[in-house]
Write a structure and sequence with these properties.
By secondary structure, the protein is α+β, with helices and mostly antiparallel strands. It has 2 helices and 5 strands; from the N terminus they run E-E-H-E-E-H-E. Strands 1, 2, 3, 4 and 5 form a 5-stranded antiparallel sheet that branches. The longest helix is centred in the middle third of the chain and has 12 residues.
């Protein structure tokens, strides 16, 4: 797992998501992942397909995949 814990005890994980092509896509993915319990920050970048998630505890791939699917995109895995 490539998650990193920072000094405040939060966990930062970078995921690869396919299909994002614009700001609306970024907003859709960010919005769905932001709704997961413990998530404090999400930054999606369509040009790289990377989504950086900061959470209070590590998230399972299953819950992130479900959120990305709900937004209409595909979770490739962790970057």
């Amino acid at each position: 797992m490539t998650a990193q814990t920072d000094t405040q005890g939060s966990v930062t994980t970078v995921y690869k998501v396919s299909g994002m092509s614009c700001g609306h896509c970024e907003g859709s993915v960010s919005g769905e992942i932001s709704g997961l319990p413990g998530v404090t920050s999400v930054k999606a970048v369509a040009s790289t397909g990377e989504v950086t998630v900061v959470s209070a505890a590590p998230l399972t791939d299953e819950e992130v995949r479900a959120a990305v699917d709900e937004a209409g995109f595909e979770l490739v895995g962790q970057a």
